[in-house]
TrEMBL record:
Keywords: Hydrolase. Gene3D superfamilies: Hotdog Thioesterase. It comes from the Bacteria. This is PaaI family thioesterase. The keyword Glycosyltransferase does not apply. The keyword Hydrolase applies. Residues 48-119 form the Thioesterase domain. It comes from Agathobaculum hominis. It holds the Pfam family 4HBT. InterPro entries: Acyl-CoA_thioesterase_PaaI (IPR052723), HotDog_dom_sf (IPR029069), PAAI_dom (IPR003736), Thioestr_dom (IPR006683). CDD domains: PaaI_thioesterase.
Length: 140
């Protein structure tokens, strides 16, 4: 499957991506992805900041998209996240994921999150498990 087709699949994904209005902006065939979200009221915690789950989900979608960029199906096996600053209502968050280490069955992805003012919001590490299926297999 070509990278443009994989990008289109990720951009048109339903489920949580669509519900939370998270958009895959770029994919790169070397295991990279960029995902963005506008921080609307629905994605905030009671204190008016980006909910930690919103930021984590943004990172998970970025890591999953990066893993999918090579046409393979992967699921999250393990993850850690460090929050540095709050995401503020009305701002856009961007998560950039890149592959740190690829193995036969698993890969490790690093994810950095910044806001639209360039402030570093969070970092995450995701270990993704490859199921053995390809994205072509999932279309049938």
């Amino acid at each position: 499957m070509e990278i443009a087709e994989i990008l289109k699949l990720r951009q048109n994904a339903n489920g949580l991506n669509k519900l939370m209005n998270m958009h895959v902006i770029t994919l790169d065939k070397d295991g990279g992805a960029t995902v963005e979200v506008e921080l609307t009221d629905e994605l905030l915690n009671p204190l008016g900041m980006a909910h930690g789950g919103t930021i984590f989900t943004l990172c998970d979608i970025a890591a999953g998209s990066a893993a999918a960029s090579q046409g393979t199906v992967a699921v999250t096996l393990d993850s850690t996240i460090n929050y540095y600053r709050p995401g503020r209502a009305g701002h856009r968050l961007t998560a950039v994921a890149y592959e740190r280490k690829r193995g036969r069955k698993t890969s490790v992805f690093m994810v950095e999150v910044h806001d639209d003012e360039g402030k570093h919001i969070a970092d995450a590490t995701f270990t993704m498990f490859y199921t053995g299926q390809t994205l072509d297999d999932m279309k049938h």
